[in-house]
Design goal:
The structure holds 2 protein chains of 2 kinds. Chain A is an all-alpha fold. Chain A has 17 helices and 2 strands. Classes of the chains: A mainly alpha, B alpha+beta.
């Protein structure tokens, strides 16, 4: 509350804790927020390449990059290298699309960030500044719309390269991303049902008071997480790249900074997906186990703390992304499809109905206490997870290709085979 | 052709994806935090020990007066299977033979060590050395002076305590 002494006259006109900034101050604050977000985002993405290499090294009992500035300057060295490299333009490429594709794959991930709130509001002498670049009323719908555009970059890259591996990667990617988009959207509907609104700020507010959605909607979180892995083309769903099958998939023909942009796009969408998981299911910038951050008076320190908390949540998910990447092998194509369509989508649909019914039941029973509600939701989720684990633990559920054949089916096939052999004998 | 479908009936804990994935994750995280388990040798700073019988690039030993021990007998170019040693013998006023030209093409050399084994004067040796780099192919044709200038340890063709390799 030091601002009180600085400008008492201004404060009488505008209450910094309640009235949002307007006019010229609003414009300049937005520009400032954009600059800060963009800078931190790009530097963070660069450092993520280092983090990925370090974590993969440690998991594989290696040291990882430790030469350029003890390893810390490795991203800078890589960036410099990519700028200096020759730009190749293979014969037969569709030039405009070939150049456009890397940009298109990077932009959606970056754009999605403008509606993600990254901290508690700050009280300034000009009024309250929400720590989000654009607090759109349609917040979450905007994210769904924008992130689904990411597939364009990959498909266009695959198609315009005039290379069969790239084309296969692009095709796989379109099938995969379109399939998992649906499960992803469906898994977030329970979140919107609980929040009763699509602005991300109200989703965070609801979690700050009613407990994090990871407790309330655990199953939705798992569906969202799996779908997010598929959407970002990370292992175990990296079929579009699949270096052991498709060379490098959709970016086979790319070199220098254009290739680098695809790389940046992958990490950028990872950061965005992590931020979304944190926002939708882990309370966003909500400081856990405290209530005073949920309501004013807002101060700089509180905002800083909430930003740090949000960053910590994002970093945890990023680490999780990498941890999974260096552990699990790639899914086969049919496994990928059947996981998306036969497991995640029906599960998400059933879960929407279940959660809607529970919300309806709770309001009919007149239960308003947030803790009791969270406990009810939590116990429902625990029960559901135990059931789901028992089903999916049977193995082979998502993999029809080598599913067990019933005895009579085998017998039928053998009979057909026997008949054919007899016919062949007769023909002789 | 008969269709043979072999169905192995494994217990659930063996075929479960979830359990296998969790087990894998716990294994990788164990390695992630295993700071002392990092096995990479930090090469230019750290070097793995090499065998005393390592056969690398050559070295010519010298006498106390700083001359090459070689007497240009011609045994090493004769025995060399890769034909990489070029020797032109010379003779001084006192009738001592010495090499006028002694060159070893290290690119042709197969590092069999026969030259060291056959040398009656124990002059030419293969060395315990492996870091070689040059800017041209010609750089790998070592002349007499270069062979004498090498300082790396030489190969022990056999263990002195166990000469027959028992």
């Amino acid at each position: 509350m030091t601002t009180l002494h600085v400008a008492p006259a201004l404060l009488q006109a505008v209450d910094p804790n309640n009235d949002p900034v307007t006019g010229g101050a609003f414009f300049w604050f937005t520009v400032l927020k954009m600059l800060i977000i963009f800078t931190i985002y790009m530097v963070g993405v660069a450092m993520l390449t280092l983090a990925e290499r370090k974590i993969s090294a440690w998991i594989q009992d290696r040291h990882g990059p430790n030469r350029v500035g003890k390893g810390w300057l490795q991203p800078a060295a890589d960036g410099l290298k990519n700028f200096m490299k020759e730009e190749t333009m293979p014969a037969g490429v569709n030039r405009p699309l070939f150049v456009l594709a890397p940009m298109l794959s990077f932009l959606p991930a970056l754009t999605a960030w403008c509606v993600i709130p990254f901290g508690a509001p700050i009280a300034t002498r000009w009024g309250r500044v929400d720590l989000v670049v654009a607090d759109l009323p349609v917040g979450f719908l905007f994210i769904l719309a924008i992130t689904s555009l990411g597939v364009y970059g990959i498909v266009l890259a695959g198609w315009s390269s005039n290379n069969k591996y790239a084309l296969l990667g692009g095709l796989r990617s379109s099938a995969q991303m379109v399939s998992y988009e649906i499960s992803m959207g469906m898994s977030t509907i329970p979140v919107l049902l609980l929040a009763g609104n699509v602005t991300l700020n109200s989703i965070i507010n609801q979690q700050a008071w009613g407990g994090w959605n990871v407790v309330n909607l655990t199953v939705a979180f798992f569906i969202f997480m799996v779908a997010a892995f598929a959407e970002t083309n990370r292992l175990p769903f990296d079929l579009p790249e699949a270096e052991s099958e498709l060379i490098a998939g959709y970016h086979t023909e790319y070199s220098a900074m254009k290739f680098s942009l695809f790389f940046i796009a992958e990490y950028a969408s990872m950061v965005t997906a992590s931020a979304l998981m944190a926002t939708l299911f882990f309370g966003g910038w909500d400081v856990p186990f405290t209530a005073h951050d949920n309501i004013g008076p807002y101060s700089g320190w509180l905002s800083l703390l909430s930003i740090v908390i949000f960053l910590a949540k994002i970093l945890f998910f990023l680490f999780f992304f990498m941890w999974v990447r260096w552990t699990l092998p790639r899914f086969r194509y049919d496994q990928l499809m059947s996981l998306g369509w036969k497991v995640l989508l029906p599960l998400a649909l059933v879960y929407i109905v279940l959660i809607a019914a529970v919300i309806l039941g709770l309001s009919a029973a007149g239960i308003e206490d947030a803790r009791l509600k969270a406990a009810i939701f939590g116990s429902i989720n625990v029960a559901l997870i135990i059931i789901l684990f028992a089903i999916f633990d049977r193995g082979r559920v998502i993999s029809p290709a080598y599913g067990r054949m019933p005895a009579q089916e085998i017998e039928k096939l053998r009979r057909i085979d026997r008949r054919r052999r007899v016919a062949a004998e007769v023909a002789k | 052709m008969a269709i043979k479908v072999k169905v192995v009936d494994r217990p659930v804990e063996d075929v479960s994806y979830i359990r296998a994935a969790l087990r894998g994750m716990s294994l990788t995280v164990k390695h992630l935090f295993d700071v002392n388990g990092r096995v990479t040798t930090q090469y230019p700073e750290e070097k793995s020990p090499i065998s005393p019988r390592w056969r690398g690039t050559h070295r010519m030993l010298t006498t106390e007066t700083g001359k090459a021990r070689c007497v240009a007998c011609g045994l090493c170019p004769t025995v060399c299977p890769a034909n990489c040693i070029k020797l032109v013998p010379g003779e001084d006023e006192e009738g001592n033979r010495y090499p006028l030209v002694f060159e070893i093409d290290e690119f042709r050399c197969i590092f069999c060590g026969y030259c060291q084994e056959v040398c009656p004067e124990e002059a030419i040796h293969v060395g315990r050395h492996y870091e070689n780099s040059e800017y041209s192919r010609e750089g790998f044709v070592y002349d007499l002076q270069r062979l004498m200038d090498q300082t790396h340890p030489v190969c022990e063709m056999w263990d002195p305590e166990d000469p027959k390799g028992q």
